[in-house]
Design brief:
The protein is of the alpha/beta class and 350 residues long. It has helices at residues 3-16, 35-41, 53-57, 86-93, 157-160, 173-184, 194-201, 213-219, 230-238, 249-262, 264-267, 283-291; strands spanning 80-81, 84-85, 109-119, 125-135, 140-145, 152-154, 188-191, 210-212.
């Protein structure tokens, strides 16, 4: 064995035993850096903690690129479904349509969607923060932010898309509530799980004037789920991806209306038509009264509950066991009690 080979074998043995190889010369000593001397020597020199540019520029768990969902949508297709153009409905969802003057009116159908923020302990309670209403064609009728009366614990920006800057021009809850009630009066509300929206608005609406796409989709077997999510329903019916990131109540309201338009003819069959504007609950009574033949009113019959002064008071005397009529022509009627076999009440013959 040569000298070099023997030296390599010795080094391997020392490493296996966990011992560091011996160094030639004296051992090196580490010196601590005295920052006070450096700062006094060069006052303009400052030391900043080092940052990992990889973690600051690309936070963990977040995507570095944002994919626009509109890029994957086919807006040029000629396909139709239930008489509705899929391209038109897709453009409506993303606000790519141009409206005429008549299409900007509220109309008969209004789709509503609300966004909430978290208040209370740990932000678990939901508070109304934004209301969006669109008409049948997708034109925005209302889009208002609501000022919060409590401290917002969680803005839920990841889902609601609401930030503290949106509260600068927000309106009071009572003002928004009255505007929604006035706009939706005598109109049909379309929404996805719309009972949640009405609950946070503290409003009620007649049942025949509500079209809940979540309930109707399950009722008519459009989807196998009893409570389908809006994004799944839109993906299935229109092949459009929504709610991939921050939600927009305007986009969600338009998507809800698009799904409803696909099935409007079938879903409207189970509801009775709306009454004429300004008609109340007395229409049924008026119809019954108008269908009755005109009968002349006899004298003495005026309005119900009001005396005309021509009525006659009739007294009915109780009939006795004997069918003999009692004549009361004389003013001294008591003198005739013993005549013709009529005995007085309570008398007894021995």
């Amino acid at each position: 064995m040569s000298t070099s080979a023997a030296k390599v074998s010795v080094e391997k043995q020392t490493f296996r035993k966990g011992k560091k190889p011996e160094q030639d010369g004296p051992p090196h000593k580490r010196r601590k850096l005295d920052r006070s001397q450096l700062s006094s020597a060069s006052p303009g020199l400052t030391f900043a903690p080092s940052q990992d540019t990889s973690t600051s520029a690309f936070p963990r768990g977040q995507s570095t690129t944002t994919i626009d969902p509109e890029l994957a949508v086919d807006f040029t297709t000629q396909a139709t479904k239930n008489g509705e153009s899929l391209a038109t409905l897709r453009k409506m969802i993303f606000g790519r349509l141009e409206y005429t003057s008549t299409q900007t009116d509220p109309g008969k159908y209004l789709a509503i969607d609300c966004e909430m923020v978290g208040v209370g302990i740990d932000g678990e309670e939901s508070s109304l923060a934004r209301v969006s209403i669109v008409n049948y064609w997708g034109a925005v009728q209302m889009d208002e932010f609501v000022k919060q009366k409590e401290r917002v614990v969680d803005y839920r920006t990841k889902w609601s898309g609401i930030r503290p800057s949106d509260m600068v021009k927000a309106k009071q809850f009572e003002e928004v509530q009255k505007a929604v009630a006035a706009l939706t009066k005598d109109r049909i509300i379309v929404g996805h799980a719309v009972h949640n929206d009405l609950k946070v608005l503290l409003l009620s609406h007649p049942g025949p004037c509500i079209r809940d796409t979540q309930h109707l989709a399950a009722k008519h077997n459009v989807t196998s789920s009893k409570r389908p999510a809006l994004r799944n329903l839109v993906k299935q019916e229109l092949d459009v991806v929504i709610q991939g990131g921050e939600h927009s109540s305007v986009t969600d309201a338009r998507a809800t209306m698009a799904v409803f338009r696909l099935h409007r003819k079938e879903w409207d069959k189970g509801f009775r038509p709306l009454p004429a504007p300004g008609a109340g609950g007395s229409n049924k009574r008026k119809h019954i009264e108008s269908s009755e033949p005109d009968v002349p009113t006899p004298p003495g019959r005026g309005r119900k509950g009001v005396s005309s002064g021509l009525s006659t008071i009739v007294k009915r005397t109780p009939q006795t066991k004997s069918k003999t009529a009692v004549k009361t022509t004389s003013s001294n009627w008591w003198t005739t009690l013993g005549a013709s076999g009529i005995t007085a009440k309570g008398s007894m013959k021995l």
